[in-house]
Design goal:
alpha+beta; 154 residues; 5 strands; STM4215-like; 28% helix
């Protein structure tokens, strides 16, 4: 089994989240990870949004095999022009960041992004509030995906 690229896994994550585009009217895209509220608001071109960011990996050496644990942070974002609570809880015109967290978990948690024996199901390891204010509600959720591969040893 060959090593899978970060972009291959990231693209598979984006594809797995794609149903949110039609079900919740959500932008699904990649992001650079900057959480400064002013830059974040300017960077998000469409709200609500689910943004995917590769946060890093750890690797476990198992002789000729490796187990790589790729960590992806997803930013789940919504806003409401007048009510902060509606940015978080949702309303008539927006889904809300908390319901979006549940929708993301329904699509990813315990599911394989690539149907292959070397790619394990998504494991949700953390979730927290990042930005709450100025009519924005942004949460991050961290998923780890284990990928096994063989190393050519000479």
């Amino acid at each position: 089994m060959a090593k899978r690229s970060i972009l291959e896994i990231e693209n598979a994550l984006l594809a797995k989240l794609d149903p949110l585009v039609t079900s919740h009217g959500v932008l699904v895209d990649t992001y650079n990870g900057d959480l400064d509220p002013d830059r974040f608001e300017a960077a998000v071109q469409s709200w609500p949004a689910v943004l995917v960011y590769y946060a890093g990996s750890s690797v476990q050496d198992q002789g000729a095999r490796r187990a790589e644990y790729l960590e992806f942070m997803l930013f789940v974002c919504d806003r409401h022009e007048r009510e902060q609570a509606e940015a978080r809880r949702g309303g008539l015109t927006n889904p809300g960041s908390c319901p979006l967290l549940d929708a993301v978990a329904d699509l990813l948690e315990g599911k394989r992004v690539i149907m292959a024996d070397d790619v394990f199901p998504c494991d949700r390891v953390a979730q927290q509030s990042e930005i709450q204010g100025n009519a924005m509600s942004v949460y991050s959720v961290r998923y780890v995906i284990q990928v096994n591969y063989l190393v050519n040893q000479e």
